[in-house]
Amino acid sequence: MPNLRKRINRLRPTPESPYHKELPASPFIQHAWDHGTRSLVLACDNMLGFLSMMRGAVPTSFAPYSVLRSGVDGIGLSRWLFEPEIGPDERARRAYRAVIEDLIELGKAQAIDPDESIARANSAGHLRAIADEQASAHGVTPAPRDKSTYSALAVRYAPIVLDVNRSGAWGYAVLSAAAHGRAWAITLGIQSASEQRDGVRDFTLGPHHALVDAMAWLVLRALTWAVEDAEGYAGIKHDPIPR
Questions:
Q1: Virtual CA dihedral for 95, 231, 223, 54, nearest 10 degrees?
Q2: For the whole model, what pTM was predicted?
Q3: What are the structural domain ranges in the chain?
Q4: SS3 of residue 174 by DSSP
């Protein structure tokens, strides 16, 4: 992990990189780079937090689910934007979608707690108008609004096997459900149950260790691949690990 963090911190596109070759095509190529690298930093930070949590003195039961899920989201968005097989037109479309999603969330936050000190230039509506104007000027349409596309991209290359033969996509669904407090996911971690008086059962809950271990392995591998994708787009050479 420390080595991956160093590689992320050193991400700077070379003059001969695919990034610089695509940059003249659209201003959204710059957005792709900004959103993709930011998501990569987020994913790496979450995984460093996960490792620290697992080694910490204070035991946790459900925090690993949320941290791993956030790691998957960051990895997936980064790989979606830096996918080597796509060209500048599709990359610009995906970046436009990422910009739109960011501004939708900004608009929700501003609607909940409007701050009179926020200048009009920083409003979600004004920033969206600028993005739409740029897109129109360069003939860019947004990629479809489907976050599962890039969440799946983080896990599709590495199926995992739990005690019940399940895939990484199933593991991500459990992480998401547990992060949102869904009972069916949380109770996968039931460690013991005893009958109490008056028909009340006493449960001892904890993490589903097989799931957490398998998803941690998957996410760490996917993070390595995401760094490789970003380095490839930046024109940085590294020996890839098998996929």
A1: -120
A2: 0.83
A3: 2-234
A4: helix
